[in-house]
Design a protein that fits this description.
By secondary structure, the protein is an alpha+beta fold. The protein is built from 16 helices and 22 strands.
């Protein structure tokens, strides 16, 4: 792994300083909590056991939206909150979030939402306007099916009797996470460390002595010193880049590990009052010329009550998402997931797509929640709440559930709980806090079809990238959009890092293999890539 001087300095700081709050989990929820805490004046640090946004926060549908279907579930307050947060993000991060129009089609044989069909949809969209459209001055309107086909040329127009267009927004989830972390670091002095895993978590009364491990980046010892009356928590961690172990002293802890929140609660001997029902979501990607569309499309799935999105993104179009109970299964895309999404979209097209058309994809886990107090768990994960849940227990604040759209509100609620525990009264400024683009748009890491070495350098020096996979999947997003190009770029980056002595040949080979494993997790390997791997 690549270790920069900045990383060494941050490791030393977290080992030697005492923090008001330590956040565990480097997705958008943890990043938002870090910025919220630091901008309120708290000394704050964050640790993530893998790469930032490597879990749910790089695998969403990349939408900032209210959720039309939540209206059908009676979640009016949730939709109102979502749309309020959408407005704030569009205003505070205009370089990262932008408007996206959606076209929703009414199937002649299977009305959306209810047997009332088009009138019910118009009523729901009017509600969407009232809860959020008025804030941005954009409202839904009815369009002809012919107009919809002009937007989405491969549409089988004969299947539909009506169509509506309404405004929402999108934002790349991983890019947002990284830029929120950069603002917390650059503007408010927060520390963020990826590849630092929590090994144990211990709490102590603040009036007793606490033994904590000392040692810098290369220390593996358990030598201790006493910091009297300075800490309620000792968070013991392992730096996965070097193998060194150390402890972080903090007054409070935020558990922002999403679908894995109960693991941290177990380590802290805190009983959970919620059940987390992980839901697997898969998206697949095609070249835009295979499935061109000028707007996002909301399409019904034949034989199912669900809908799927078809979303344009530059040279690519992506389709998603599945919504299935993960259970004890590994987090990976199965061929059945790809077939489901293709069948779902093909049921609405005049000519069918093939598996060979798919160039990329991604899979993630949503932390859906249900109360334990006698509540019967929904049989379908789509019926579980997307609301977030806060559990406060003696200086540890756990947050899970929620959506990309509401990350800021989740952070406010979390730090409000930290305030209570620390007997502080701080004021949130995040409603008006700009989130500028502080890192480059890494695109596909190429300029004129040649590896952009300056972008690789920036990803490492400024963007916390530690591995080639970090660069391919979460600084650039080419890893999820184009499997074949990703493998080609991984090898080019490996050669460059060998030439610059940042990696040995053996380390580079291992990291390219890691890229292949992540590609295969996100999408069964294409035949062309299998042939390349077989010829090595």
């Amino acid at each position: 792994m690549i270790v920069t001087e900045r990383r060494k300095s941050d490791i030393e700081r977290t080992n030697n300083e005492r923090f008001d709050v330590v956040i565990i989990g480097g997705g958008i929820t943890g990043a938002g909590a870090l910025l919220e805490a630091a901008s309120r004046g708290y000394k704050a640090a964050l640790v993530e056991k893998a790469d930032f946004s490597s879990g749910t926060s790089s695998a969403s549908s990349k939408l900032i939206h209210g959720g039309i279907r939540y209206l059908a579930q009676g979640e009016i307050a949730l939709v109102y909150e979502n749309l309020r947060e959408r407005t704030l993000l569009l205003k505070n991060a205009p370089e990262l979030a932008n408007y996206l129009d959606f076209v929703l089609l009414i199937d002649a044989k299977r009305p959306f939402f209810s047997p009332l069909g088009s009138p019910a949809m118009r009523f729901a969209l009017t509600g969407y306007d009232l809860t959020g459209g008025f804030r941005i001055g954009r409202f839904h309107k009815k369009i002809t099916v012919g107009h919809a086909k002009g937007i989405f040329p491969r549409l089988n127009a004969s299947k539909f009797k009506a169509a509506y267009i309404y405004p929402d927004a999108r934002c790349d989830d991983s890019e947002l996470t990284l830029n929120v972390l950069k603002v917390a670091q650059n503007s408010y002095g927060a520390v963020a460390l990826n590849y630092v895993e929590v090994t144990s978590l211990e709490s102590y009364p603040s009036n007793i002595s606490v033994a904590v491990a000392e040692g810098g980046d290369d220390s593996k010892s358990e030598s201790s010193s006493i910091r009297k009356g300075t800490s309620n928590y000792v968070v013991k961690v392992k730096d996965k880049t070097t193998g060194s172990e150390f402890a972080i002293s903090a007054k409070s802890v935020v558990n922002a590990t999403g679908a894995w929140a109960t693991d941290i609660l177990d380590r802290a001997n805190v009983e959970s009052t919620i059940t987390i029902r992980p839901s697997k979501g898969v998206h697949i990607v095609l070249p835009a010329e295979k499935l061109p569309t000028a707007c996002a499309m909301v399409l019904p799935v034949d034989g199912d009550s669900r809908t799927i999105f078809v979303i344009p993104n530059g040279k690519y179009t992506y389709i998603g998402t599945t919504d299935t109970d993960l259970g004890d299964n590994p987090v990976r895309t199965e061929i059945e997931d790809v077939e489901y999404l293709l069948a779902g979209v093909n049921g609405n097209l005049d000519t069918k797509l093939k598996i060979s058309d798919v160039t990329g994809g991604w899979v993630g886990v949503r932390p859906l929640i249900a109360e334990k107090s006698g509540e019967k768990l929904a049989e379908r994960t789509k019926d579980l709440s997307r609301r977030h849940k806060i559990i406060a227990n003696d200086g540890m604040v756990t947050v899970t559930g929620g959506k990309l759209t509401t990350y800021r509100k989740m952070a406010v609620d979390v730090v409000d709980e930290v305030d209570k525990f620390l007997s502080q009264k701080t004021t949130s400024i995040s409603q008006k806090l700009p989130i500028p683009r502080t890192l480059s748009d890494f695109g596909n890491l190429q300029k004129a079809d040649v590896l952009a070495k300056d972008l690789v350098d920036e990803a490492i020096a400024e963007g916390w990238a530690v591995t080639i996979a970090d660069i391919i999947f979460r600084r650039s997003r080419i890893g999820i959009y184009d499997q074949l190009l990703s493998y080609e770029l991984a090898n080019e980056i490996a050669s460059y890092l060998i030439d610059t002595s940042l990696l040995s040949k053996e380390e580079a080979e291992i990291q390219v293999e890691e890229v292949v494993r992540e590609l295969e997790k996100n999408l069964p390997l294409k035949e062309e890539l299998r042939e390349q791997l077989g010829s090595r």
